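Form 7-S
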Amino acid sequence: MAAQRPEDRPEERPEDERPADRPEDERPADRPAERRTGRVTLRRDKVPSTTTDQRLLDSAQSADWLHTDPWRVMRIQSEFVDGFGALAELGPAVSVFGSARTGRHDPAYAVGVQLGRELAQAGYAVITGGGPGAMEAANKGAFEAGGTSVGLGIELPFETGLNRYVDLGVNFRYFFARKMMFVKYAQGFVVLPGGFGTLDELFEALTLAQTRKVTSFPIVLLGTDYWGGLLQWLRDTAGRYGTIGPQDVQMLHLTDDVSEAVRTVVTYDDDVAARRSE
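Output:
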């Protein structure tokens, strides 16, 4: 076989100069075949016609980019930074949940005030969602007892803003960032009667405790008439079907006694401190 002459051999090109899979005449003339931005690879029509610097410096650009997912990541990050910074030196705290619809003349409101007061007297900051109803009641009790009253608000279409008894307030756009603060800076949860939001927060705490994402975390339900049916359903229905175990229900402490609820948190906290010192 005759040796191939140099002029007959195909031209070798560097990897980045070889033709893309897409024919040259099918690619926009102003776009390269591929662009890499960090871990992201863009090819063909996904390659933008301008560079990041060009878009940054273009004074005539639309503000739509402010609502894109990459920009949201920065907002999410800022919410965590603000929350961590505001609460890092809070000290011992308990998160209290309950309905925003609880009226000031409702017996549950008075229970919330007493709960906030006794938690503050026991040396705990009181963290709520910062809204009206049961949240306001717990903040009021802590405020009147001279304790630290914290409100973690959330941006909602019907949001009324932080209640007037909040000393330290942080407003969030994203539920998941807010939930992180409820758990990270609390030694336990006390749950007053509430609706979907309260149930969401309750079962979030239960799931974290069940999966041991958090440890030594007391969860107290305050109000046997309100919460008794839920516990019975968990035992008799979910337990019978085997979707939860008996020990899962035992993570919940049910009582009508505010002082008992506070003692449950304090005792749990003392036990954890004792185990850590051993």
